[in-house]
4-hydroxy-3-methylbut-2-en-1-yl diphosphate synthase (flavodoxin)
Amino acid sequence: MNTEAKEPMKVQWLGNVVEIGAGRPVVVQSMTNTDTADVERSVAQVLELVRAGSELVRLTVNTPAAAKAIPEIRRRLDAAGCFVPLVGDFHYNGHKLLSEYPECAQALSKYRINPGNVGKGEKHAENFETMIRLALKYDKPIRIGVNWGSLDQDLLARMMSENQKLENPLSAKAVLREALVQSAVQSADAAVALGMKPSQIAISAKVSGVTDLIAVYRELKKRCGYILHLGLTEAGMGLKGTVSSTSALSVLLLEGIGDTIRVSLTPEPDQPRSAEVELACEILQALGMRSFTPQVVSCPGCGRTSSCLFQELAKQTQTYIKSRLPQWRKSYPGVENMTVAVMGCVVNGPGESRHANIGISLPGAGESPVSPVYMDGKKWGSLKGPTLSSDFHALLEDYVKRTYGKE
């Protein structure tokens, strides 16, 4: 079967069209963790995720109350001027909820289907077909989302049994990887056979191990031309989740594998959900694939940087940029490509500052207490004294206006 998506998937709501695949920039996705039936909290979190840079937002649709809430969530987002496409996450009862709540089916822009839990035996094919027919009826793209924590057990049992009969059987992990690939590709092929275009289908096969994810997606890339959604599931919390997600996604993205990504971080207690979006954006920006926000380049410090002034200025500058970015994006297109350097001594400070759009080199131990500033590779002048931070930010603001202002 020819599964190549020769045109991008279009996930849209009103005038906002997000294109995925076929050479388009990698799209950032996220997912809420609120009770979807709680409309107020769900709307607030969607807005938070969108402000952080999420271009699609997925919500759990697991109960009649959640299905009923989706149209109201959509209405409130529209009223707030937020037209981000919403993706419905369905498990076990998606065929019923989409059938019984047509307003929900229409308000969503995309459906996520897990073939591992749409039903057992004969019900598996029947329920899966129901969801595909409804996607066709409402002209909605889908994601076939396979997960090794909820894999089709009939398929896995059959493959394990067949493997045991081989003269040189594969390891259990190798069979599990193969089952993930087969489940994803076969389910997508079945959707095409029911009438969906390859460009209306994305597939994912998520695992929690870095090397496992890389192996599975390399195999998917060999076997099909469907749009690929990348994500290390259950990545973990804090540094562990950050390193694991970055390692896995970066390897695949640099190999040209992946059209859209989601980072599945466990949120720190009392911390915003948007951290997963910020990390996804940082990964793409670090790889040179997308630009979301101006980058602050700063040194780690050494024995020469006896003062913590450069650390404080680097943090203050990042905070300042983050606070100004929403307005800058509206008024100064292209500002997200800007690089700002905040350096701590004369060794690399002037050089890094010259490489940046605008940079400042603070004095290290034993250096003259002045901080040269560079703009577009040339020395502008110097700053010093207790107002250094506010003075530098004023220069930064002026630079943005002059460089990225609309003519």
